């Protein structure tokens, strides 16, 4: 067994590998860039080596720096995680030349399967069903358009060395192909150091299902069931689950057998994933093979009880698999949500800054329910523009799919993040979505169900009543503290307590009556003649409300704001205001704030780096014309003119780092 390994990665996957290595008694080495000097993975490791500036192309993607770090620390092996160098055969070869073991597949397997173009050629030769497409070198945008015209629309343009949705575009016309080709090549070059792309037919209404395989250096390969990753946006997975609600045992066995055959054909000897695009009729086509550990591996670990990182390490030392296919049993259901630093209400634009509050739900296993949180941050961490926006992977496991979804929803309600925008309200809304609960999925789910983008759920019925109850409880506790601070409770004259309140949330206004009996808070709702009993140990300053409403457990994220309480619960993210009747009268007399007119300015929609400015001052532009390209977290965002106009002044230039809503240019 290795005594010391280096993790050639960052963030949550570096921390994840370190946890298993520590349990196995193996010392770990972290590498870090300028942006990651205070990162969690650096603190967790036994040793840490600085490898360069923040951009990945100057640090995490430089093979020579990783090898130098191994030599400096005496690391015997390298775990590459996912992304960065994990699917680069040249990296595995370079390590091998230096006598350093890669905790991953051999270079030949990576070369055969790691490149998406070559893997499809290999799969075709092995008579594996593949999606129609062009696998040769695409010379320029015109060549890409010609290929797409021959295949038939829609098509997908995809980075050959890509992953995680980077360097990927879906095109429905020749114009979209030309632009998508340029963008995909650019993103591929910056993210993977390889700008080759290919074009293939895009299957309409598809499902994304992948098979986890595990092989050793003695010719043994098994599969560990499937994962469904159909809930995606911008071709990047958002929610994953295992097993898939689509497959039956016969289809699972057929897909697993095909995945194993492909892995054996290339001499695969580690954990890897064979991805398929599946039709609603359970037909399936080989998509690609990821020759690395997948982001979503925790759901497989929870339903099989197998630690994939441990297996990768043992295989790398030359051990035989201790498992046979007959030993693999699928137990229960697991759901994983990717918690991203992005603003779901602004078309999922990335968000950067400091995690002022970071309080994930408690990791635990109790009464058949398991909650796991894989993360690489802590309260006070900085979310940088240079890397992927994922903050954490929240995973729930339960005996059934419905129970796993319910556990995931409860855990999301208990996940408090402040300081940056995040997608927890969106994830919570997905957990409550009837189509998701029914398992009627496709990769177009988000685009189809949220065509106008995501807007927090408008509460009604019982949910509205519960939010009003929580807000009233919080307001009452805050007022109790205020009275104690001011000394009013010790005054000779008792404080008059007005039981009637008005709770406002959006367009809703609820009249309520409150009573506090030995810390059990009761709210009477005249509109439906119901009484809600609220019990909680919540204290001012706590970011999460834990309690019960009519004896049923409830969790909600809480933030006090000026004249109100911001509550996030069950897909709702709203500010509630609790008034006395007199305060309602006075509030109606307050003047409304008038927002500044920014209609004649192009604002930066997210913190990011200006890659290019496509126009000049005094230039006439047409609606839809490209104005600028801003890069954030390895994704290029094209900003277009919303209407015809004339550029009067340009404030930003290529290379500028801009904050959200910074003015890029102005129109006449």
Structure in words:
By secondary structure, the protein is α+β, with helices and mostly antiparallel strands. It folds into five domains: 100 residues, 3-Layer(aba) Sandwich (Rossmann fold), CATH 3.40.50; 70 residues, 2-Layer Sandwich (Dna Ligase, domain 1), CATH 3.30.1490.20; 242 residues, 2-Layer Sandwich (D-amino Acid Aminotransferase, Chain A, domain 1), CATH 3.30.470.20; 127 residues, Glycoprotein, Type 4 Pilin (2-Layer Sandwich); 67 residues, RNA polymerase II/Efflux pump adaptor protein, barrel-sandwich hybrid domain (OB fold (Dihydrolipoamide Acetyltransferase, E2P)), CATH 2.40.50.100. It has 17 helices and 40 strands. A nine-stranded antiparallel sheet has the order 14-13-10-11-12-15-23-21-20. Strands 25-26-27-28-29-30-31-32 form an eight-stranded antiparallel beta barrel, surrounded by four helices. Strands 3-2-1-4-5 form a five-stranded parallel sheet, sandwiched between helices. Strand 28 and strand 29 form a beta hairpin. Helix 4 runs antiparallel to helix 5, helix 5 crosses helix 6 and helix 7 packs across helix 8. The radius of gyration is 27 Å and the shape is globular.
List keywords for this structure.
single chain, 668 residues, alpha+beta, Rossmann fold, Dna Ligase, domain 1, 5 domains, eight-stranded antiparallel β-barrel, 28% helix
